[in-house]
Write a structure and sequence with these properties.
By secondary structure, this protein is α/β, with parallel strands linked by helices. Helices cover about 45% and strands about 15% of the residues. It is built from 17 helices and 13 strands. The strands form 2 sheets. The chain has a 7-stranded parallel beta sheet, with helices on both faces. A 6-stranded parallel beta sheet has the order 10-9-8-11-12-13, sandwiched between helices. The two termini are about 15 Å apart.
Length: about 425
């Protein structure tokens, strides 16, 4: 299996989850060894602290594409074609313009409009096995759907062109996954058969797959908080505003906010009365929250996650209406409670599988605090629901279907 993952250079989130998934839990499901997966990422791969030692040892930092390239240039009108050309050239340089691909399965788990066409042009020039390949394309963080028109239309057109190019190749059989139904419907509209489109909002985490103790909000002083990349779209400022209003709530608040990320907030505030960093420092001095400043290693991330009774995710629906959340997935895998925005895609998914959660209906400090208070008021009921929750079959049924599809491709290749 050959995997190309440009997301490996980023922080905690989707790219890291898929690196863990394909090289650990997924390889186990295929009765295969991680060293049989040829995993390629960006050259900043070795600098990423959250990747497990298995991933660090198995993956190769061979694609010279910086994360900002594909993340920030996703919908900049005429720039899309130029960035796709850059991606194509980088693949040419790394693997050859007419490379031979012998793997029966090729995975491109984190596609965006700024890179899928470039990758498609490179792959369709390659020499492929006589029986063809199954190309797995992941459409994960789809924040380009939040772009204003006409950028949104241009981004969708770029993806359509890429899928039509791949679909037209006689030796490429597509399998596409995303986290939300709306994106899957778009892919079907591009011409990919519905049976080959998968909804994968959750993936088994090897670290938590064998079970952890469910969190307990009903403890005398529960801990709530947020872990992961700190940005305005993820609502960290709303949590700080909620902390300002907390009086005698008998809760602890934990916030992971790496100092390198704080500039996002300074950029979004025209004339702040108090900077985001100053507010964080003051609230920490006042004993109202605990602040984790440094990037988290894999072990420290797990420890911080398991220290929480509830993860608070006041995500802006402008960005999260049509995309999932790596941090929310990790919270579910670790059996933590979730307090999250009512209008983000993940809330609907939680409702579908019956996972207990509390909704934030007003994205403000008062709205977040109201949701925390409601969760604490209903803590005993929520704890019982979480302890009883056993919809793993429903949760991972699509993973099983996805695994079966790829097993079939591997079996067919071995019989050749």
């Amino acid at each position: 299996m050959l995997v190309f993952d440009l997301a490996l250079g980023g922080g905690i989130g989707h790219g890291q989850m898929f690196a863990q998934f394909f090289l650990t839990a997924f390889s186990q499901r295929l009765s295969s060894s991680p060293d049989r997966i040829d995993y390629h990422g960006t050259r900043t791969l070795g600098e990423n602290p959250v990747l497990s030692s298995t991933v660090q040892q198995s993956a190769k930092g061979s694609i010279d594409i910086q994360p900002w390239l594909w993340r920030t240039q996703k919908g900049l009108s005429g720039s899309l074609a130029a960035f796709n050309e850059i991606v194509e050239r980088r693949f040419d340089l790394a693997f050859g313009a007419n490379a031979t691909v012998s793997a029966p399965i090729v995975v491109y788990p984190y596609a965006l409009p700024s890179d899928l066409m470039g990758f498609a042009r490179w792959l369709t020039k390659c020499a492929l096995p006589e029986k063809g390949i199954t190309l797995v394309v992941g459409l994960l963080f789809n924040d380009f759907l939040a772009d204003d028109q006409p950028q949104r239309d241009l981004a969708i057109s770029a993806l359509r062109e890429a899928f039509e190019t791949l679909n037209a190749h006689p030796l490429i059989n597509l399998a596409v996954f995303s986290e939300v139904d709306a994106v899957n419907a778009m892919v079907v509209d591009f011409g990919v058969p519905e049976k080959d489109v998968f909804l994968l909002p959750f993936l088994p985490s090897l670290r938590f797959e064998h079970g952890v103790e469910p969190a307990k909000l009903s403890r005398p002083r529960p801990r709530v908080g947020i872990i992961g990349t700190c940005r305005p779209s993820r609502g960290h400022h709303h949590i700080l505003s909620a902390v300002e209003e907390i009086a005698h709530e008998d809760i602890d608040v934990l916030m992971h906010a790496s100092e390198s990320n704080l500039y996002w907030f300074e950029r979004s505030q025209s004339e702040p009365k108090e900077s985001f960093e100053d507010q964080l420092q003051r609230l920490e001095r006042e004993g109202k929250l605990s602040w984790i400043r440094e990037p988290l290693s894999h072990d420290k991330y797990d420890k911080a996650l398991l220290s929480l009774d509830a993860m608070i995710l006041p995500y802006d629906p402008k960005f999260y209406k049509d995309t999932g959340s790596g941090v929310a997935f990790e919270a579910v895998a670790a059996r933590r409670h979730l307090i999250l925005s009512a209008d983000c895609a993940f809330a609907g998914i939680l409702g579908r599988v019956g996972y207990p959660h509390t909704l934030i209906h007003d994205l403000s400090g008062s709205g977040v605090l109201d949701a925390i208070r409601r969760a604490k008021l209903n803590a005993a009921v929520l704890d019982q629901a979480l302890a009883r929750w056993d919809n793993a079959d429903l949760l991972f049924s699509e993973v099983d279907r996805f695994t079966h599809t790829l097993k079939h491709s591997l079996t067919s290749a071995r019989e050749t």
